[in-house]
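ok so heres the complex, three chains, lmk if somethin looks off
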Amino acid sequence: METIAIPAINMSVIAPEMILSVVAMALLLINVFVKNEQKGYLGYLSIAGILVTLYSLTIGWGAPQDGFSGSVVQDNFAIFFKGIFLVSAAMSILITDQYLQREGCNQGEVYPLMLFATVGMMLMASGTDLMTIFLGLEVLSVSLYVLAGFNRGSIRSNEAGLKYFLLGAFSTGFLLYGMALTYGATGTTKVVKIAAAAQSGMVSSNLMLVAGMLLMATGFAFKVAAAPFHMWTPDVYEGAPTPITAFMSVGPKAAGFAAFLRVLLVALPVFKAEWSSLLWVLAVLTMTVGNITALYQQNIKRMLAYSSIAHAGYILVGFTAGNAVGTSGILFYMLSYAFMNIGAFAVIILVGKKGEENNNLADYAGFGYKHPALGVAMCVFLFSLAGIPPAAGFVGKFYLFSGAIQAGYIWLAIIGVLNSAASVYYYLRVMIYMYFKEPTEDFNWVRLSPAFIICLIIAIAGVMIPGVVPGTILELAQKAILM
Amino acid sequence: MLDNVWLIPLFPLIGFLINGLFGKKIKNEGVIGGIGTLAIFCSFLVSCGILMQLVGLPAEQRVFEKVIFPWIHAGNFKADMAFLVDPLSAVMIMVVTGVGTLIHLYSIGYMHGEEGFYRFFAYLNLFCMSMLLLVLGANMLVMFIGWEGVGLCSYLLIGYYFEKKSAGDAAKKAFVMNRVGDFGFLIGLFTLFWWFGSNHNIWTINFMEIKAASHLLPYGGVVTVATLCFFLGATGKSAQIPLYTWLPDAMEGPTPVSALIHAATMVTAGVYMIGRMSFVFIKAPETMMVVAVVGAATALFAATIGTAQNDIKRVLAYSTVSQLGFMFIAMGVGAFTGGIFHLMTHAFFKACMFLGSGSVIHAMHHALHHGHLHDDPQDMRNMGGLRKAMPITFLTFFVSTFAIAGIPPLSGFFSKDEILWQAFSNPYHGDLNKVVWALGCIAACFTAFYMFRLVFMTFFGECRINPKVKDHLHESPLVITIPLMVLGVLAAVGGFIGVPKLIGILPNYFEHWLEPVFELANEYGKQYAHMHEHSHSLEWGLMGLSVVIAAIGIFIAFTMYMANKSLPEKFTSAFPGLYRAVYNKWYIDELYDFVFVNPCKSLGNLLWKGFDVVIVDGVVNGVAKLVMAFSAGLKGLQSGYVHNYAMGMALGVVVIIAFYVFR
Amino acid sequence: MVSLHSYLILSAILFSIGTIGVLTRRNAIVIFMCIEMMLNAVNLTFIALSKYLGNLDGQIFVFFVMTVAAAEAAVGLALMIAFFKNRESIDVEDLNLMKW
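and the predicted structre for the whole thing:
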């Protein structure tokens, strides 16, 4: 047996995670003393915590350092992704309180849980050891299972939570098995050492390593909702409380991509031929299944779930390319996706009322005239999701697809463009209902709280500014890629 | 100061946002107009500061590029939001912000009481911002944004009285014609970008980078193609043959708009663009020839039409087209400095005349309104003798008219004479130069004629307005006349910064100032054309000739409209066909309708009913139905049962592993 | 001395049994137990490999997996109780409100 050396601990690397965890635990305690109708303040406290964390992140930009003997790293890549997580968490928290009050399930635990989930995502983005990545993923997943089933009184929410839990745990099994095989083949769980072992051929069994890689890929594919591991997505998104759906559709997906990218690009670049061909197929399947099924949806929340599957497909296109343009495109797209998707969900929450979520397309008839400002906001988000300039969604897709073209995947780019053309149909259909159908309701229950207004303004700015002047964000993204 | 160049377009943008967003709520005209004017005035101050700083620098250091923020970086393609300050753009920002400020001020008085007062100022500010982007842009993309922006504002402002059908039609016409030109601009841009990229791996649209690499460009060939495309863009924006017909119609807009956009600034964008890319244009002798010939033809053609119009603004509009023609002559014969010089002096005197005509129309309108008469306030046949009622307007207008006619020592004399002299003496196009020169001289004669016809009909003679309301004709308020006076003074003395060397009372500051910008172009020009020395006596002679020509024009106008007023009628009855042709603008609009518009309409109809409805819609609907059927099938897979989902995942894993591990 | 291969094959068999159990059983608790079985099969792999490679990383990993499995069990059972309260069943066939 070897002696156990005390590893070099560098606490400053995980300082942001520590801050956020401490805030979350403090909130759990404070929650006990807060009256039921004032739980919203916990939300503002968590946003304060997030802002502090965000600030502590920016300090590390451009000065990568690692800690815990190379188990975690704070590089630009991790920081960029953590920025996405924190921004999306903050925006989701802004729209949570009003929804929970309305549905009568405003337990204060929701905020610590969201923060813990965020900590999990941050660990996934930072993790340079399979162990750290696994732990981050589980911290994230366990929090999300609870969040998805958070509305205990609603049978749909129960069902969403349980379904997500069963399938999530199932996929964890595959991921873990893949990690075990990778460990067996290379003798280490650190991504850098795996890369070194794979490069130098110091691998006990190549077959084992490839199988391990593929099993890990399926685990991550589940997390990012890539076909055929996507089937949980529509059900869970539909059943979960809407702010949680908004939260789930962005952060965890980004976190899945962060870990996925690091494992494949850093640990296993040797097998690029294998994984890029696998991703090619996954990308095409994911885009096509997501978009085509979305065409038929009448429930807008479910439609956005399918659309989020399709978007994972677009991102996989950039991933397949695996070059600088494609990778920076992923970072750019993830960020803009956070704004447009959470913005769209925010509007969806506003259209609903207690007990009736009003998620059917027909419920949106004439909404654009009854609430012109919200209608315009929704149009901005939908245009961006559809990838119509000058919204950020267009620029992001442009970089993803041009990355694929640069890497020689012409057909993949063509399929992607065709897919995004098809997607325009179902996004525009919402607008048609909003503007060209006679209103059946007067929508007098729609209440815009200040938190919502802030969230929507941030979302619109986040969609329009990178859309019109993508340079600054793109430059950051280019500095944050893993090569 | 140079670092603060971004402030220049920022101020009008802020003005636009304030007036555009809150103007409706502000309501107070003084505040709205004040904000709009102050915004552009601040830009003017910053521009002055920048000019001062440039003057302080040694000549070769007067180029400064400021990247505001990185914009689009995709692969080889890189375009930043960046501004370029050099002597050329400094001249342009001074003209745009200076004349712009005066016209904003003027508009406060002129637009008083109009509905949508805030809208007008918001658009005017937006226009100024776009124009400043256009002239400051350090690469073609920023320039193109400005180029499109001014087109948009022009459209919005021509159609300002949108309840009038003619205004709407005019706006549409301007927009479509400009789009034709923009298409040329884009093709030119792509050609140049592609050529540099594929042949020399220089992927750039930045002007300074292109300038540094311009020695790689061949003479003629691809450069001719690219520059001809750019020139097409210029003809659209600057109203040259064949795309000039929108400008006279654009007079449907409020008069300050005509003065600012359709005389002083936007329409000169084409001239500026050629100046900005002089080092590319000069490498295509054929294009230069086309530019010169088109310019000369336009100058003469528009001048002839101007002689028979009765609407005061239309005369000025054709005059603008004609003067722009002069600027293109200058560009085409390689007299870039002369062209920009004329651009500047023209901005002074033409803005002054437009604003003067606005003042006249304003007075006429009020008088006619007072008497509840429905006579046309813009028709010169209703005017006459206004010099007594409106002394300031008359005086400034009179000075400007002398300037445009080319009477020394007013500004127009120096700039126009410079162009004609260069057309005569520059060696680029051989004998064709003399033809261009001759056309220019004739056009100058016509210019003097129709301008004095305008002045005589408007300000002299007896008053032809309905006598009932004659006493209600008043001089306009100070807010209108102050800009007139300032512009009048500029029109009178503005030429002294560019006095030809020959006269020698003052050094030619203007030429000296722009020398570094056009140095390279002149060098390239020397590669294929050799300068001849011309004797001073020839230059003196030609200068005298151009004065004589102007005097002849004035004399004819005087005889026909002052001394012997029956002459015009005799003339029209002697040549009825000619008169009608000129009066109807040589039937060019009708020709365009016949050749382009109507065939396009019928082709469109055919395609719509035959091709679109049957084939395209059929295919599209078929595909849509197929996809929807597919969609219905796919959603069936989503059964809602956990074990089915788990089965899908497990199958996925098995297939993937099986494929890669056991292949 | 049992060879590494035997351990790996055993754990693969256990993993497959777990997987098949997830696919075929209808009771949510049984499904969850099958998932636990899959995780423990992975643990077995880790420990066998750790012993074979002579490094401790694998065993540390197992501790984490066990901790995580415990957390998952707590959350999972809570979710099942909540579902049972509303639906009086933990049969996954009843998890079918949302589909298509």
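quick notes: The first strand of chain A starts at residue 65 and ends at 67. thats all i got rn
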